[in-house]
From TrEMBL:
Its main location: membrane. This is G protein-activated inward rectifier potassium channel 1. Gene3D superfamilies: 1.10.287.70, G protein-activated inward rectifier potassium channel 1. Keywords: Ion channel, Ion transport, Membrane, Potassium, Potassium transport, Transmembrane, Transmembrane helix, Transport, Voltage-gated channel. GO terms for cellular component: monoatomic ion channel complex; plasma membrane. The record marks 134 as: Role in the control of polyamine-mediated channel gating and in the blocking by intracellular magnesium. InterPro entries: Ig_E-set (IPR014756), IRK_C (IPR041647), K_chnl_inward-rec_Kir (IPR016449), K_chnl_inward-rec_Kir3.1 (IPR003274), K_chnl_inward-rec_Kir_cyto (IPR013518), Kir_TM (IPR040445).
Length: 321
């Protein structure tokens, strides 16, 4: 088998990197929330920890600064003196007061007195800032955890596609399956043919995308995915594979990108699963083994045969021939 660069990996990851953005990179900061959600988990956790650590140290330093400027640190043990924050003697005690206030623990040992207007203003600022930081970071983590990307991993595609006859017509077929009992609502499948071509005007298109018809007119692209299904693309005069034969398949270079979209029944979120098939993964003259069997009161799916194929008599000629 020939190894070459894929446009889309078998696991659905797109092999496209954006570079030399120049001034356009500022667009990432204008949509900071989406940028954080798109980051990898290790960077999310690092930003989460650093943001809270820096915010806590800065706010604790501000409380300590107020106590230092008012002289509370030197007279904190004087019972006749009214400090800004009671029982704040040094930076650790100021830090503990901030944590008690931010986490609404309120042990009762440290508190703001009524003779400290700057402390009241700082308390209001701390409450507003803490609410904003909590909403931003916790919301970001929640959205990242609830993303339906992991749901896509329980949607299976066959390792190879096959070309054989069905109902007297030559068809390109592959298989999809759902490993979970929960359904994919409004599941729809689409196929793109990625292939380089040159226009009659001499323009070279390195990754030209062409749609493969998998039943748009008949509604066959709308899937009821409760059991493995075989998706069929009829090779006819409108198909880009009209001139494809068994011999020409060996010299072709193309990639078929499959996109399965649907709504996760349990969460209501849209999920997308992707895979691709190169010309080396298209088996001419093969058919998929059956995986469904009827048992006592239910249908059983044998996923051990999900990727298995067997040879069938198939003309080696193209539809055009």
């Amino acid at each position: 088998r020939r190894e070459r660069q894929r446009f889309v990996d078998k696991n659905g990851r797109c092999n496209v990197q954006h570079g030399n953005l120049g001034g356009e990179s500022s667009r990432y900061l204008s949509d900071l929330f989406t940028t954080l959600v798109d980051l990898k988990w290790r960077w999310n956790l690092l930003i989460f920890l650093l943001t809270y650590t820096v915010a806590w140290l800065v706010m604790a330093s501000m409380w300590w600064g107020i106590a230092y400027l008012r002289g509370d640190l030197h007279q904190a043990h004087d019972d006749t003196y009214s400090p800004c924050v009671a029982n704040v003697y040094n930076f650790p005690s100021a830090f503990l007061f901030f944590i008690e206030t931010e986490a609404t623990i309120g042990y009762g040992h440290r508190y703001i007195t009524e003779r400290c207007p700057e402390g009241i203003v700082l308390f209001l600022f701390q409450s507003l800032l803490g609410s904003i930081v909590d909403a931003f970071l916790i919301g970001c983590m929640f959205i990242k955890m609830s993303q339906p990307k992991k749901r896509a991993e329980t949607l299976m595609f066959s390792r190879a596609a096959v070309v054989s006859q069905r109902d007297g017509k030559l068809c390109l077929m592959f298989r999809v399956g759902n490993l979970r009992n929960s359904h994919m609502v409004s599941a729809q499948i689409r196929c793109k043919l990625i292939k380089s071509r040159q226009t009659p005007e001499g323009e070279f298109l390195p990754l030209d995308q062409c749609e493969l018809d998998v039943g748009f007119g008949t509604g066959a692209d709308q899937l009821f995915l409760v059991s493995p299904l075989t998706i069929c693309h009829e090779i006819n005069s409108k198909s880009p594979f009209f001139c494809l034969s068994r011999r020409s398949l060996r010299s072709e270079q193309f990639e078929i990108v499959v996109i399965l979209e649907g709504i996760v029944e349990t969460t209501g979120m849209t999920c997308q699963a992707r895979t691709s098939y190169t010309e080396d993964e298209v088996l001419w003259g093969h058919r998929f083994l059956p995986v469904m069997s009827l048992e006592d009161g239910f249908f059983r799916v044998d996923y051990s045969q999900f990727h298995a194929t067997f040879e069938v008599p198939t003309p080696p000629y193209s539809v055009k021939e």
